[in-house]
């Protein structure tokens, strides 16, 4: 008994000593840790194939583990980013994905939650890798207005960066974004917006009425494929273009939970907020509807993103997923950092550990 008492005292004293010297200890560890972080090449470590990481798994409402919509797609050695919700660029940084290497950013539509991180994405992509040409931003018609506005807003910041860091770090020619605009494909059809020997990216019109244009993007790399829905109601076009793909990344909104929020707004005497919540469920897809698409298109796996509303309390995810298990079982409710790999020349769907 006495021995255990003494051992306990020693452990407490040791803990107190380590705690009191935590700054000095960290100073010894930090240089090596920083070297590891600075030289890390997480993308190079991936096998050849198609990979995604969610840099934002939420919608417009604040959520601790689901930032504004943002999906990183790695095809072979190329990095593309679909949508730029709040915190997207910072989450990519935390995941060790170098935004500076982004080939292009693709916008699904121009709702604020999908574009509000654009300025930061372009700035980091420029300065992080000393890019000498602007970030190409792909989108349906209207993308020109959005990009021009952001470019104007960031003109002063761009000058500040070059003035301070010099032209080698921040070459003026690389500031901001360039516009790559496409006419909206006809309903049900796809339009190839990027192609090389191994990779094809297609734009598909979806139904987010009255928001138009709104599009999905399909990536096909070698023998693997995935589709990112953007915001839409249950869409026959998505089902058609998802036929047999490996991974469907689909938005979803629980009508049941959003209507509970509307009722709460009404009880608290806020009829305009009640109207807002009552409005939003008519231009999104429910989790069960997304599962029906996954089942009917025979996809390999369904990853939910743009998860609305925020699932902030235990049990809410169960309500959000109500009925899904009767329709389709291979589902993941995405969070920031959720990462899935589709290695080439294989049928594997690998869930990589989150780096967040
Ligand atoms: Zn949205
Ligand atoms: Zn939207």
List the helices and strands and how they pair.
Blueprint: H1 2-20, H2 22-39, E1 49-56, E2 70-75, E3 78-82, H3 88-94, E4 102-106, H4 112-115, H5 118-128, E5 135-140, H6 143-153, H7 155-165, E6 177-182, E7 190-195, E8 199-205, E9 215-221, E10 224-228, H8 236-241, E11 247-253, H9 255-267, H10 271-280, H11 287-297, E12 301-308, H12 316-320, E13 331-333, E14 339-343, E15 350-352
Parallel strand pairs: 3-4, 4-5, 5-6, 10-11, 11-12, 12-13
Antiparallel strand pairs: 1-2, 1-14, 2-3, 7-8, 8-9, 9-10, 14-15
Bound molecules: zinc ion (2 copies).
Q: Unreliable runs, pLDDT <50, ≥5 residues?
A: none
Shape: globular
Main beta-sheet strand count, sense and barrel state: 8 strands, mixed
Q: How much β-strand is present in the residues?
A: 15-25%
- Give me the CATH fold name of the domain at 50-108 and 185-352: Metallo-beta-lactamase, Chain A
Q: Count of helices?
A: 12
Q: Taking strands numbered 1, 2, ... along the chain, how are they ordered across the largest sheet?
A: 6-5-4-3-2-1-14-15
- Structural class comes to alpha/beta
């Amino acid at each position: 008994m006495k021995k255990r008492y003494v051992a306990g005292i020693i452990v407490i004293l040791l803990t107190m000593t380590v705690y009191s010297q935590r700054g000095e200890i960290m100073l010894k560890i930090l240089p090596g840790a920083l070297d590891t972080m600075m030289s890390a090449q997480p993308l190079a470590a991936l096998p050849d194939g198609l990979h995604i990481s969610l840099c934002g798994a939420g919608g417009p409402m604040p959520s601790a583990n689901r930032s504004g919509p943002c999906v990183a797609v790695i095809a072979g050695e190329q990095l593309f980013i679909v949508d730029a919700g709040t915190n997207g660029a910072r989450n990519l940084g935390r995941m060790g994905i170098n935004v500076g290497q982004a080939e292009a950013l693709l916008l699904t539509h121009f709702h604020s939650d999908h574009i509000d991180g654009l300025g930061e994405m372009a700035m980091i992509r420029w300065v992080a890798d000393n890019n000498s040409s602007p970030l190409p931003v792909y989108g349906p018609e209207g993308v020109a207005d959005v990009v021009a506005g952001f470019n104007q807003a960031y003109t002063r910041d761009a000058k500040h960066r070059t003035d301070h860091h010099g032209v080698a770090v921040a070459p003026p020619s690389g500031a901001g974004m360039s516009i790559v605009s496409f006419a909206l494909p006809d309903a049900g059809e796809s339009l190839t917006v990027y192609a090389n020997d191994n990779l094809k990216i297609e734009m598909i019109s979806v139904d987010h009425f009255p928001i138009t244009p709104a599009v999905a993007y399909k990536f096909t790399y070698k023998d693997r494929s995935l589709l990112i829905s953007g915001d839409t109601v249950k869409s026959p076009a998505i089902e058609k273009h998802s036929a047999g793909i490996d991974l469907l990344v689909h938005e979803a909104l629980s009508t049941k939970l959003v209507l509970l929020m509307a009722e709460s707004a009404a009880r608290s005497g806020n009829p305009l907020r009640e109207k807002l919540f009552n409005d939003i469920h008519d231009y999104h897809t429910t989790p069960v509807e997304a599962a029906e698409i996954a089942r009917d298109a025979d996809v390999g796996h369904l990853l939910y993103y743009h998860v609305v509303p925020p699932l902030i309390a235990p049990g809410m995810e169960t309500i959000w997923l109500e009925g899904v298990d009767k329709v389709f079982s291979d589902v993941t409710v995405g969070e920031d950092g959720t990462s899935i790999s589709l290695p080439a020349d294989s049928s594997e769907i690998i869930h990589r550990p989150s780096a967040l």
